[in-house]
């Protein structure tokens, strides 16, 4: 798995593997530009998560690799970094967010909490709150999911 190979090389070999090292020189996502998010789990607990809505790298694959490395900066992950056995037990989730799967909604009641995630962008506050699909546990309806994304992003809820 790409995520596990990149994380282990970065943590234990102190290097970022090349696309050639990973056998990905001709991967289909070298030609695409789709934002990605990486979430690491230990059991049911999220121990690290990162991603960008606006990509910084030139391809989906390069962005994904960068996001995998960025998970190591998540404060929740620090206690796992020094324990190789725990790292081996980490499970990975990779979400790609292609533009055709994103929809602008006018009311939180339009959110299907079983299938949708939420991206709340507060441009004037320069803040962003994101809840990926099937990553919430408390939300019982679209409004609750929207509020949770606002709180997570430090956005005033209206």
If you had to describe this structure to a student in words, what would you say it looks like?
The termini are far apart. This protein has helices at about 1-10, 60-70, 80, 85-90, 140-155, and strands spanning about 35-40, 45-50, 90-95, 120, 125-130. The strands form 2 sheets. A 3-stranded antiparallel β-sheet has the order 2-1-3. A two-stranded antiparallel sheet has the order 4-5. Helix content is about 30%, strand content about 20%. It has about 160 residues and is of the alpha+beta class. A hairpin with a 2-residue loop joins strand 1 and strand 2 (about 45-50). The model has no long low-confidence stretch (mean pLDDT about 90). It has 2 domains: about 1-100, no CATH class; about 105-155, no CATH class.
- Alpha-carbon distance between the two ends: 42 Å
Shape descriptor reads: globular
User: What is Rg?
Assistant: 17 Å
Number of helices: 5
Low-pLDDT ranges: none
Total strands: the figure is: 5
Percent helix range: 25-40%
- Please, what is the average pLDDT? 88
Strand portion: 15-25%
Number of domains: 2
Instruction: Please list the strands of the largest sheet in the order they lie side by side.
Output: 2-1-3
The ordered string of helix (H) and strand (E) elements is HEEHHHEEEH
Largest sheet: 3 strands, antiparallel
Structural class by sheet pairing and helices? alpha+beta
């Amino acid at each position: 798995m790409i995520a596990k190979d990149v994380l282990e090389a970065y943590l234990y070999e102190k290097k970022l593997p090349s696309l050639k090292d990973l056998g990905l020189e001709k991967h289909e996502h070298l030609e695409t530009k789709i934002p990605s998010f990486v979430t690491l789990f230990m059991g049911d607990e999220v121990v690290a998560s990162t991603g960008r809505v606006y990509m910084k790298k030139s391809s989906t694959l390069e962005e994904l690799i960068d996001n995998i490395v960025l998970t190591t900066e998540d404060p929740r992950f620090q206690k796992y970094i020094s324990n190789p056995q725990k790292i081996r037990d980490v499970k990975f989730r990779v979400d790609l967010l292609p533009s055709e799967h994103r929809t602008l909604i006018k009311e939180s009641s339009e959110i299907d909490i079983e299938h949708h995630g939420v991206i709340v962008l507060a441009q004037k506050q320069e803040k962003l709150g994101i809840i990926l699909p099937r990553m919430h546990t408390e939300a019982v309806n679209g409004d609750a999911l929207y509020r949770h994304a606002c709180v997570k992003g430090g956005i005033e809820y209206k």
